[in-house]
Specification:
Distance between the termini: 15 Å
Mean pLDDT: 97
Radius of gyration: 14 Å
Largest sheet: 10 strands, antiparallel
Number of helices: 2
Oligomer: single chain
Bound molecules: myristic acid
Number of strands: 10
């Protein structure tokens, strides 16, 4: 499946501003933008596992398309939401448990790169990953 594989972050676009909108403090923002994030994604039909490994933490998520699940984000935020597939694009909608506000996110393959877009309170950031 297109998303399966190991993906290492190559560059960020406006990610620091996205984190600022999320309320992440300056010290954590600085660390997050150089976290060497690596995602290992396995897709089997509608079921996914995402292994996240970075200088900040290592963790793993398992979810099925359209089924809500709990997740703890790298900044410590707890969220609940789900991923769906729209065409070739994964579309995620997650509500923060502390304030109910929504994070929207997409993952898509563009020119062989995995591009994750994240939006919170109107501020969009991107992380672009290269396949290993
Ligand atoms: C501080 C980092 C914030 C990153 C926000 C990403 C948007 C929410 C994504 C939820 C991820 C669930 C698990 C996953 O598929 O990786």
């Amino acid at each position: 499946m297109a998303f399966s594989g190991t993906w290492k972050v190559e560059k960020n676009e406006n990610y620091e501003k996205f984190l600022e909108a999320m309320g992440v403090n300056v010290v954590k923002r600085a660390a997050a933008t150089v976290d060497n994030l690596c995602l290992t994604i396995t897709q089997e039909g509608d079921s996914f596992t995402v292994k996240e490994s970075s200088l900040i933490r290592s963790t793993e998520f398992a979810f099925s398309l359209g089924v809500a699940f709990d997740a703890n984000l790298a900044d410590g935020s707890d969220v609940n939401g789900s991923w769906t597939l729209e065409g070739n694009k994964l579309v995620g909608k997650f509500a923060r448990k502390d304030n109910g506000k929504i994070i929207t996110t997409t993952r898509e393959i563009i020119d062989g790169k995995l591009v994750q877009t994240m939006t919170f309170e109107g501020v969009e950031g991107k992380r672009i990953f290269k396949k290993q």
